[in-house]
Amino acid sequence: MIRTRSRRDDLAMTSSTRRMWLLPTGLILLSTIPLVAGGILIDQLNTGSRIIADNAKYLADPVPVVTHIVGVTVFCLLGAFQFSVGFRSRWPRWHRIAGWIVAPCGLAAALSGLYMTVFYPRQVNVGDLLTAFRLVFGTAMAVSLVLGFVAVLRRDIAGHRAWMMRAYAIGIGAGTQAVTQLPVVLAVGPLNVLTNALMSLGAWLLNLAVAEWFIRGRSLRAKPSRRRAVATAA
């Protein structure tokens, strides 16, 4: 009997551990393509190796792009673990410490991204529409991070998680864009100015829709818990 219980406990722990790693692993994999591309670009800027024409603009003003790549890398990789319930419950102190790193890195990524959008020369397939989208979503990401920080200072944990989830959904948008655009590029060739803008918009909206689905799901699950707590107290 004791062996049976022990085995069941081991199976339950293994299942819980797998669930704990599932979401962070998926988010990290989603961000792999743009983060690898960013790492290659930093290496090229650092070593002075051959840079493709579209990236030559970074040589004259490398600080914003390096800030953006480093910031979004930390934000995407470390931030992926912030949304795992298992990590938060097992290591709450780690979650809080990581939050003080993730939020500033995310804000640095958003602000440097806005700077590059305004002041760097555009790539060939980037027009006014995509520029406008980048300004809107970059601003939305920065605002979401600030609101998330304000919420946690007010002890509004639900609001903090919601705003941070929205900021992360925008920040990881480049990963979703790479995943959705790559098959199209392989099938029909390079995207033009319009299709590039629309597909980028679609990736951001998809991420935000998934984030809002999770946020709404948490809210609906929390309401019955609050009602039960009130009923018990009464």
Explain what you see:
- The chain is mostly helical and 234 residues long.
- It has one domain.
- The chain is 84% helix and 0% strand.
- It contains 9 helices and no strands.
- Helix 2 packs antiparallel against helix 3.
- It is globular.
Q: Please bin the fraction of helical residues.
A: over 70%
Counted beta strands:
0
* End-to-end Cα distance: 41 Å
Global structural class: mainly alpha
Rg from alpha-carbon coordinates: 21 Å
Oligomeric form: single chain
Average pLDDT score: 85
Note the main sheet: none
Number of domains: 1
Total helices: the number is 9
C-alpha geometry? globular
Q: Which regions contain 5 or more consecutive residues with pLDDT less than 50?
A: 229-234
The portion of residues forming beta strands comes to under 5%
**SSE topology string:** HHHHHHHHH
Summarize the structure.
The chain is an all-alpha fold. The chain has helices at residues 2-30, 32-47, 62-80, 85-90, 92-119, 128-153, 157-171, 173-188, 193-233. The chain has one domain (19-217).
